[in-house]
Amino acid sequence: MSSPAVGVVHPVGLSIVVPVYNGAATVGALVAALSALAPEGGIEVVLVNDGSPDNSGDVCRELARSATIPLTYIEHARNFGEHNAVMTGLRHARGAYVITMDDDLQNPPEEVIRIYDHARTGGFDVVYTRYAVKEHDGWRNIGSRFANWVADQLMDKPKGLYLSSFRCMSALAVAEVVKYRGPYPYVDGLLMQVTQRLDSIEVKHFARVEGRSNYTMTRLIRLWMNLATNFSVLPLRLAVVAGVAMGVLGLLAAAWVVFEALVGETPSGWASLMTVTLLIAGVQFMILGVLGEYVGRAFMSANGKPQGVVREVIAPREGAA
Question: What mean pLDDT comes out for the span 112-130?
């Protein structure tokens, strides 16, 4: 077994970071279930309210006042996104290991100890969870599979490793991940750059208790874009390949026109010309779009777009176990 950070003494063994968004109906039950756990070295909870439009803030403040375990409450000034909220939570986590999980009780709290012990005793820097059955909507499952396929193509990760938001990280991995200050974090991409001590463990996955998923297709597309443009230049290389392919196609088409002229036939006319023109224009605009996405993100990063703005922090109260 390896130490998560040699020579560093951590106040608690395990920190639980929970990004909260429209979680007023479930976050209390989640904290109650986590409070009943007794992991090696103790436990703390870090709640990050990511600009929830409901009364999640009031619920979390009451939990910070009444919690029987150390609980830190952090409030973002606006909604920045799940991965941004996780990054804020990681910066306030004090554990030798940190588990991130959602606020909707689809990740069963009773699996926390098993994931933590697997990482701790096995000396892993990151342990992901995988599910035999996922209780998400069909489109969400398809989106998750597509995101993992994209990650397989673009990132240096073991093939087939399922990237779940229910994950355990060592303090070493967390310390390296939070060094990233850009406005477009993708936690899993950052973890792949930090360590190769990765593993996964199968856990249960429950149906959502209250409300509906906060993930929309727009949010998933943004997540894919973060993955594609922040951790790989493959889209740029694909744009080059597309440009070369269209150039070769253009040369072949030009050769065919010359051949038709030499044999005395009238070269193909308006329809074929318009088809080729539209095809080339489409590829050019695609390449410009890819370049524009990279340039735009670089501009926003250089312009100081914040990763997250913290409005309020409530530290663990005195006397919490």
Answer: 95
| Residue count (the chain) | 321
42: left (phi > 0), else alpha (psi -120 to 50), else beta? left
* Backbone phi, psi, residue 60, to 5°: -65, -40
pLDDT reading at 2 higher than 50: no
Is the pLDDT score of 73 beyond 80? yes
Long-range contacts of 228-231 (CB under 8 A, 24+ apart): 228/150, 228/154, 229/184, 229/293, 229/294, 229/297, 230/182, 230/184, 230/185, 230/186, 230/189, 230/297, 231/154, 231/155, 231/186, 231/189, 231/192, 231/193
| pLDDT over 80 at 6, yes or no | no
Residues 6+ apart with CB under 8 A from 276: 249, 250, 253
How many angstroms separate the CA atoms of 300 and 224, rounded? 18
Which tokens in the block code for residue 80?
A: 């920045």
Give the Cα separation of 62 and 54 in Å (integer).
15
Residue 298: name the closest of 129, 183, 220 by CA: 183
User: Tokens 């936690």 — which residue?
Assistant: 187
Whether pLDDT at 157 is above 80 = no
Cβ contact 52:23 at 8 Å: yes
Q: Answer yes or no: is pLDDT of 219 > 90.
A: no
Running DSSP on this structure, what letter comes out for residue 23? -
**Residues 150, 227: Cα–Cα separation, whole Å:** 8
Q: What is the pLDDT of residues 16-72, one digit of tens each?
A: 999 999 999 999 999 999 999 999 999 999 999 999 999 999 999 999 999 999 999
Instruction: Label residues 61-79 b or e (16+ Cβ within 10 Å = b).
Output: bebbeebebbbbbbbbeee
Q: What is the pTM of this model?
A: 0.78
- Sorted by sequence, the CB contacts under 8 Å of residue 265 that are 6+ apart come out as none
